Amino acid sequence: MTTATTFVAACATMRSGRDVLANRDAAIALVREAASGGADFVQTPEMTSLVDRNRAESFGKIVPEASDPTLAGLREVARELGITVQIGSLAIRNGDKVANRAFLIDPDGEIAARYDKVHLFDVDLPNGESWRESSTYTGGDTAVLAATPWGDLGLTICYDVRFPALYRTLAEGGASFLSAPACFTRQTGEAHWHVLHRARAIETGSFMISAAQGGTHEDGRETFGHSLIVDPWGRILAESGAEPGVVMARIDPALVADARGRIPALKNARPFRLDDSAARPRPDLRPLAAAE
Questions:
Q1: Does the active-site annotation cover 46?
Q2: Which terminus of the chain has fewer CB atoms gathered within 10 Å of its CB, N or C?
Q3: Distance, CA of 81 to CA of 74 (rounded, Å)
Q4: pLDDT at residue 178 above 90?
Q5: Active site residue 117
Q6: Active-site position among 11, 76, 97, 158
Q7: pLDDT, tens digit, 9 for 90 and up, residues 44-90
Q8: Is residue 149 part of a domain?
């Protein structure tokens, strides 16, 4: 789906905590603020409704999709305001585990698409932080492309941004806009957030739109913030800091065709094989762990 119509996209930077209903209300307020400023499309960050590393306590607050108050609240505000809302992700009960699930809500308040985060953040960072997202969450296995009034949107979440094949697949499938709403750690964000977003935009000739969690949360974690909107040439159109708030930019979908025409990397890609016969013997590489 393509169109030349421009639109205003907004990213809501949040600092979600342990109170699901307070987080819901904060998200709704930011969506209203963005809409009052002219936004047609508003995105919230990963884990909009709950940021709490205490698995035992947080699990009791996580409910199935049909009962989730944040999903219901954001569907209602999208319908009331007549705008498109992308919920960066919610923790959704899925049996004895949890799905880290994104939602695209259309202007009628209907769920247009769902995406479960594919790559789970299982890492040990140099500053001593250790994260095992797979101990709580079950990873998805499907890339999701969804129609919007302005073109197709590729849904991803946070740590996914480190896996360029996912974004290439979405762009080759027709995405003009890509997203990686996040709860990026401060340490990894300072090192890699901007360059990863600009790289994914440049590689695919797509817009990158990513809302982020920012600041020090109730559970003690520090997230980087810096919600970003990046154009297909890799230029940053809008950026927040770590404080909660809204940033916006006008998006011109025609820039996608322009960038892809100038640097036709998607069209010029060719299959190849790896010849490692002259390489040094090396131990087998373990599969990469996935999400941020």
A1: yes
A2: N
A3: 10
A4: yes
A5: yes
A6: 158
A7: 999 999 999 887 788 889 999 999 999 999 999 999 999 999 999 99
A8: yes
